[in-house]
Amino acid sequence: MSNKQDANRQASFRPIVGIDLGTTNSAVAYIHKGKPEIVPNPSSKRIIPSVVLIDLQGQVIVGEDARAACVAMPDRTVAAVKRHIGSAERIPIAGQALLPQEISALILKELKSYVDAHFGPGEKEAVITVPAYFTDEQRRATKQAGELAGFMVERIINEPTAAALAFGLAHLEEDRHVLVYDLGGGTFDVSVVEMMSGLLEVKTSNGNSQLGGEDFDWKIVDWLADQMIAEYDVDPRQDLRAKALLKDAAEKAKITLSAEETALISLPLVTVQDDRPLGIETELTRSQFVALIEPFLSETMTCLRNVLQDAGLQAGDIGEILLVGGSTRIPRVRELIRQYLGREPRTDIHPEEAVALGAAVQAGLKSGALSDSGLVATDVAPFSMGIAVLTHWKNRSVRPGSFHIIIPRNTTIPVTRSDSFYTTADYQTSASIEIYQGEHEWVKHNHRLGEFLLEGIPANEAGAEEIEVTYRYNLNGILEVTAQCVSTGKAMTVTVQDALNRESQEAFAASASRLEALFNQSAENESEPDSDDAEDEWEIDGVLAGTEEEDAETDWPTVLHSEAAALLTRAQNLLSDLAPNDRTLLQKTIDSLQAAIQGEDIDRLRELIDQATDTLIDLEV
Ligand code: AMP
Questions:
Q1: How far is Cα of residue 399 from the mean position of the Cα atoms in its chain?
Q2: 159 is catalytic
Q3: Per mean pLDDT, which range of 55-69, 170-184, 544-558 is the poorest?
Q4: Which residue from 83, 182, 255 has its CB within 8 A of the most atoms of ligand 1, so it is best to mutate?
Q5: How far, in Å, CA of 289 to CA of 548, rounded?
Q6: Quick check: 542 pLDDT over 50?
Q7: What mean pLDDT is predicted for residues 566-593?
Q8: Tens digits of residue pLDDT in 393-444
Q9: Which atom of ligand 1 is nearest to the CA of 324?
Q10: Could you give all domains of the chain from N- to C-terminal order, each with its CATH number?
Q11: What is the 560 CA–ligand 1 centroid distance (Å)?
């Protein structure tokens, strides 16, 4: 590289951090001297509660102080917002109604302030983790939260993959199958990862994005409420503050039960009835707690069995078990895993930090800070993706709504797959492409991602016109769909992102101004704003003006370049294992892809990525 290039690179240096945006806790990390390290907050705390408070002065407070205010000010605090991300549901807080990604942006903005304090102010790139089982909407909303917080979101990666990366960096020479069991506050994921001399390949993933420690807390809340109903005929869950109090006590009891056999719950004042204070004093034993959560734990074990089956592995093939997420501290969880897999999980992994550290490793691979490490990671699509088609029902009637899979679940990403479909009616001139993800044979049981209409099909007999549908699933888990009428060559391409949310640009601008208003109000109410706060406001302005434009369209050159780079790494790792003919073929693919990366022709790059993906799929089998 020339000196000029070096200088340019220096000038454009932007630190990339890795962020675990958790349901209960969040953390941010970066690569320091070849190793991932957490960026602590000003009080030296390494992880912060993912709780937001807007206090009586309108100040936005995130973290421990916000968490402490949950019981006293339940209408001014929001916890576990990750459970709502991706939905259009407004979350009430301090008399306002914010979208889940706006609340998440407040948490990310807090993390960004730690990063700014560490690296100095300015633009920062981030790799943000999501549960492997997050849908397209949940991923998009997470990305948007990052952008609203002022980050350039470089990549969205799956949490179990991140945890495996953190482990992989420290165990580069080891070849084995690793099982990552990630049970956090709100989500559950389990993945099988194959490690081979630094190549870390996620084989299969399974999980439930709505199952976690929060559910366990609410089970205890229900158990407590039942006792109060029996004693006083009053349901304390109807009172917002009482509910927050019980939830807090429930979580504390749950955590106590990870170390002790019984937990005392003593709350002299839970709620008031006819001026009479009503409280509760009771004991919860570990076995009672286990009975309350057993159905959840059984579900996680079913997922574990499925993930092994999908990977074609037996319990004995697993060489290492990584436990991630605070809820894996529950002894019964460890016991079930130990019983099933017949070995002890590793104990040197910090369940709450592993994901942020792994996100930093991914960031380091991107920034070049870890490019000499020899670590390479590939991931899979956690769901099958396909379209709705008509099908012949028991060879008699034709029924709509059958699910035709184009990308099967657990396919290595990035991936491009095409399939051909035919018109079903005489003189049909348009075709509706309905996009779904899921595993059921009928689309109504799957998750709908979007729909678009391909028009301009020549009027012809039924079955005479062929429509080729191509799915391209990129490294961020974002899907692009193309439908092309083969006889005319006319094609339409949409990203699911655009198809789903045509108003996304306006929605983003509206979110940015809501946050700006929140911070303006916060700043006005602060007695002596210091210079840092002025800078914060500036950044929000920057987000509004800058990202609005950027968000208008996906930055395809960047996305395609990172896809191409990932494919090149995959290809280069495969070369030495191939027979001479295959090696020559793959080398040619590598050369053309490298040339396309250097060039300016984005369509050509896209074409070569497709070809390279197909070649790799054939050769990797
Ligand atoms: P995470 O999302 O990884 O931060 O995990 C948070 C979840 O772990 C919350 O539901 C916590 O209540 C739960 N948790 C943390 N520590 C423990 C513990 N010692 N025993 C049981 N659950 C815990």
A1: 35
A2: yes
A3: 544-558
A4: 255
A5: 48
A6: no
A7: 83
A8: 555 566 788 999 999 999 998 899 999 999 988 999 998 899 999 999 999 9
A9: 3
A10: 385-495 (2.60.34.10)
A11: 38
Please state whether the predicted TM-score (pTM) of the whole model is above 0.85: no
Q: How far is CA 517 from CA 60, 512, 514, 520, in A?
A: 11, 9, 5, 5
Catalytic residue among 102, 159, 201, 465: 159
3: pLDDT strictly greater than 60: no
Mean pLDDT of the chain: 86
Of 38, 189, 327, the residue with max ligand 1 atoms within 8 A of its CB, to mutate for a pocket test, comes to 327
Average pLDDT rounded to a whole number, residues 505-514: 81
Alpha-carbon Rg for the chain, nearest whole angstrom, is: 26
d(CA 437, CA 448): 6
Q: What span, in angstroms and rounded, lies between the C-alpha atoms of 567 and 552? A: 27
> Cα–Cα distance between 536 and 519 in angstroms, integer?
8
Three-state secondary structure of 238-297: HCHHHHHHHHHHHHHHHHHCCCCCEEEEEEEEEEEECCEEEEEEEEEEHHHHHHHHHHHH
- To test the ligand 1 pocket, which listed residue (20, 24, 25, 349) has its Cβ within 8 A of the most ligand atoms? 24
User: Which residue among 116, 136, 182, 239 is the active-site one?
Assistant: 182
pLDDT-derived band of residue 494, with 50, 70 and 90 as boundaries?
Answer: low
User: Is residue 533 scored above 60 in pLDDT?
Assistant: no
What per-residue string of b and e applies to 298-326 under the rule 16 or more CB within 10 Å gives b? eebbebbeebbebbebeeeebebbbbbbb
Mean pLDDT within 325-332: 96
Judge whether 182 counts as a catalytic residue: yes
Is 82 labeled as catalytic in the residue annotation? yes
Q: Measuring from each residue's beta carbon to the nearest atom of ligand 1, which residues come in under 6 Å?
A: 22-25, 184-185, 213-214, 251, 254-255, 258, 325-327, 329-330, 352
Task: Tell how strand 25-32 and strand 48-49 pair up.
Answer: antiparallel
Q: Whose CA is nearest to atom 22 of ligand 1?
A: 327
Between CA 287 and CA 294 the distance in angstroms is 10
